[in-house]
Queue: 2 jobs
Job 1
Amino acid sequence: MRPPRSRRSVAPVLIAAPATLVLNERMIADDLVEPFEIEPFQLRGRLVRLGPTLDSIVKRHDYPPAVGTVLGEAIALAVALSSTLKYDGVFTLQTKGDGPIRLLVADVTTGGAVRGYAQYDPAKLAEVAASGGAASVPRLLGAGYLAFTVDQGEDTERYQGIVALEGATLAECVHHYFRQSEQIAAGIKVAVDRDAQGAWRGGCLLIQKLPDGERSEFLGTREELEDGWRRALILMGSATSQELTDPELAPEDLLFRLFHEDGVRVFRTHAVRAECRCSRERIDRVLRSLPFEERQDLGEADGSMTVTCQFCNASYRFERADVAAIATG
Ligand SMILES: [Zn+2]
């Protein structure tokens, strides 16, 4: 991943007291990314809160809890990571493995449209569930890889970062990626849970050291800077799953609770929403781009076919004549 640049566009608000000062920033209470900086130690972060966005994605597919949880983590991580990058297009986080959940895909557009899906083997998943123990990455996803892609459209360079699935949780795998790829140091914490009504909720905290080019002069010693970094990681680690996902706890209040002693600034929040980008035209284009031989095999016995979007379950019907046109086109 390219060293991300901050997307701040408005003057920061210093949280000096529990965030009553930033009432106007609370227009969005859920499904958001809250950028922040722990300025004295040249750290920046993102707090992600997901409510209806995550719930609608997971429930649309009626995924079992273990799949919903890890897909929710992938989505929360994708939202957090994408928000640190300056790009105009689509950011994708994907895992592939030989475990019961063979594929996870979460993608986020610059405009905040989020979608995701999982492919899993119900029988293998039941086996893992029956054997008890933690729902860890090795047990659920198996051996495989985690990939990040930034796609900014045709005629642009496509960025891809890839790392082996190493870690007990998806957050650990992402952390492993940061370490491997010699990126700026980062700490990540992610939580996915269901509320009393059974609605899926997610949260993510990401802290990074500012890249060299974006640092202002630090007046203290190098040790003091490192101490500030280590303290921020410990404080981040102290955030509970409940705090990360609780819709009653305003993001600013959580950041204040965690980091107020070091001075935390919050920036304008970005909204995210569940939204798919599929369309009949898009599917038509994909089908027409298949090799000639594969296009000959399209269609059911009666020549027609229905294509279902894996992300949102929308179905697109192609009549016999449409299929024939694609095959010969
Ligand atoms: Zn779709």
Job 2
Amino acid sequence: MNLELSDADRAFQAEVRDFVRSSLPPELAERNRRHMHLAKQDYVTWHRLLNKRGWGAPNWPKEFGGTGWNPVQRYIFDEECAIADAPPLVPFGISMVGPVIYTFGTPAQKAHYLPRILSMEDWWCQGYSEPGSGSDLASLRTRAESDGDDYIVTGHKIWTTQAHFADMMFCLVRTDAQAKPQEGISFLLIDMKTPGITVRPIISIDEGHGVNEVFLDGVRVPKANRIGQEGKGWTYAKFLLGNERTTIAEVSTSKQRLRRLKTIARAEMAQGASLLEDPAFRDKVASVEIELLALEYTNLRVLAAETAGKGVGPEASMLKIRGSEIQQTITELVCEALGYYAAPFEHAPEGSNLAPLGPDYAQGRMESFLYNRATTIYGGSNEIQRNIIAKMVLGL
Ligand SMILES: Cc1cc2nc3c(=O)[nH]c(=O)nc-3n(C[C@H](O)[C@H](O)[C@H](O)COP(=O)(O)OP(=O)(O)OC[C@H]3O[C@@H](n4cnc5c(N)ncnc54)[C@H](O)[C@@H]3O)c2cc1C
């Protein structure tokens, strides 16, 4: 594939850059740059600005309200947003359930849900994992019993990211306890306001509230909210996971963090010279940069294949493993570069007039390092991704 930007690509890049620079509220970029815990409204504001411009769903075909962009355009868009420190697009609607709905949904489901994802009227969350059913997802026990035109859903989901913001949850449930584990699962769209749903926060190691437990106690869900056939939910769930793992690679975000790492290492001193000139540290930075470059090309190849009509296969596992490890390495190196300035676990509260304990660029870096421990777990742990590669690619 040719990675030289054409004149048309450069014009597109300038258009995206102009828009992002002129539209992204500076305080939002600043909060994101400092790894502050963003509020729901922060994400919604940025998404709606993009959607007004027609860019709310960079990965969707035009017929469903997406941009219809090719891989190079998507790559340029991601790059420009990362360079500007824009908040990430919330993946649950746009990257995860949206493509499931337009690929497998009924006309009524498409007509109802897709516009609401685009306008962010509905915030979605992912109800897959359960206590005891994470890696072994097919063992999930949340059950949906048939009751006329409805299901009655009872169970316990865990690690449900941003369920406390969510209007809707796409949820894996067991509709047939007698069938083989993968064959008894269905994929439901559940309104989070339905009686019987309780969301309980889990505070993570970075002191943030991103994940939750969700309890479902006799929750009535119309059968019209089931995607595809009863018992075939595993097929739609796997389709979604392929897309999820590709987005988790976060190449553009890592590139921006690498630029920041170099800025920090240039400013910090080690034995009378800039840390970036220290051969041992420079070696570590160069090594992660090479890994990231290789990942970027692999990501582009996968995007190109996807656009050519090939589904995302086990390559998604490769992207997930390398992408998550690189994110962890960069956040570790940032803390190493900051030395003792990385040690204070401080988030200056908004509006605070307390003097920060270290340089401005040290703010939020420890939280970012701690939160990134999760990247090798979520979206399916890296050990599980290695098992997939061993089986599907190496035939072991
Ligand atoms: C920050 C965060 C956000 C998340 N968000 C969501 C969400 O929004 N929705 C959702 O549904 N889930 C979410 N998850 C859950 C995530 O998908 C699971 O944590 C993950 O799949 C691992 O499952 P588990 O936690 O049950 O660990 P387990 O499956 O119990 O695994 C424990 C350890 O054993 C290893 N292991 C297990 N089986 C094997 C095997 N066969 N071979 C080799 N090693 C193995 C694992 O790699 C892991 O290291 C989130 C998790 C985190 C940390």
